[in-house]
Amino acid sequence: MEIPMNLLKMSHSKQVEDGRGFYVNDQNRYECLKCGYSYVHRTHLSRHMKYECALLLADGRATKDGQFYCTKCSKCYKYKQNLLRHVKFECGKEPSFFCQFCSYRAKQMCSVKKHIKLIHGFLGKYRCPKCPKLYKYYTSLYSHLKYVCGKEANLKCPIADCPFKTKLKGTLKMHVFLKHHVSI
């Protein structure tokens, strides 16, 4: 980010603050407010403040403590890109990312991925094109598409007065064994 010339003032007698956090010392060098490094060229100071000391705000203003502040909620961030992400996706907005396995919602997709891995035990690579389900293996997705997705539950529990229905034979066997203690 290029710093406009009118923001920087030169002085030969003492260190002068230009009102934006930039200091010019008595040797005509541009000095970093945070760490004290000095540079002959203002563009070098600008690069240093942006990438090394993180002192520049998005509009070119420098902050004394090197943090980037949200103007709406006053949250502060070390890096400018984190502030921009916060403003775009988080600040004053409802969570827009959701877990396809439960009702968990988050403002960042990485939070949802972390939730799925920790709570549900995996992070699926294969997404069903007909529903929001994810699968770790392609063969699981293939079975889901062939036997489950968009199909009606047509297998009924053989035990009288049990309303259970399913789409898969293995699920029916497991149900009968666990709920009725009978093996088929």
From TrEMBL:
InterPro entries: Znf_C2H2_sf, Znf_C2H2_type
Entry keyword set: Metal-binding, Repeat, Zinc, Zinc-finger
Residues of the C2H2-type domain: 30-50, 68-95, 126-153
PANTHER family to which the protein is assigned, alphabetical: C2H2-TYPE DOMAIN-CONTAINING PROTEIN (PTHR24379:SF121), KRAB AND ZINC FINGER DOMAIN-CONTAINING (PTHR24379)
Protein name listed in UniProt: Zinc finger protein 425-like
Organism per entry: Nicrophorus vespilloides (Boreal carrion beetle)
